[in-house]
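Lecture notes, part 5. Sequence design as translation. It can be helpful to think of inverse folding as translation between two languages: the language of shapes and the language of residues. The source text, in structure tokens, appears below.
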């Protein structure tokens, strides 16, 4: 399966990142990502969720939901955000995982 992108607020997915970006109105520091799906991916399958800023992957902030799990989180990273930055979460499937609804959140300290 192909990479999809999740925008914040709408819950919509898109194969085109620029069509789903969320523009920040103020700056801050992102430091956590949490994702949940409604159905486990299945044996040997997974989804990787990565916070992206300005269409670029931010280092050390990927969490993976694999096999029978339905949640993941990544902590311990810091990424400085400024007003006007755009955010999305990329969703990369491995091994054709089960279809599921997805919800993700991030922690931003202002």
């Amino acid at each position: 399966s192909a990479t999809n992108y999740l925008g914040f607020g709408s819950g919509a997915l898109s194969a085109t990142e620029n069509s789903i970006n969320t523009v920040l109105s103020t700056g801050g520091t992102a430091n956590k990502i949490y994702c949940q799906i409604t159905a486990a991916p299945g044996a040997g399958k997974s989804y990787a969720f990565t916070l992206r800023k300005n269409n670029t992957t931010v280092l050390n902030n990927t969490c993976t939901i694999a096999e029978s799990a339905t949640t993941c989180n990544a902590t311990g990273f810091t990424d400085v955000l400024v007003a006007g930055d755009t955010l999305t979460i990329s969703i990369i499937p491995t091994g054709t995982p089960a279809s599921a609804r997805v919800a993700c959140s991030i922690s931003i300290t202002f």
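The translated text above is only one of many valid answers, since several sequences can fold into similar shapes. The mean pLDDT is 93.
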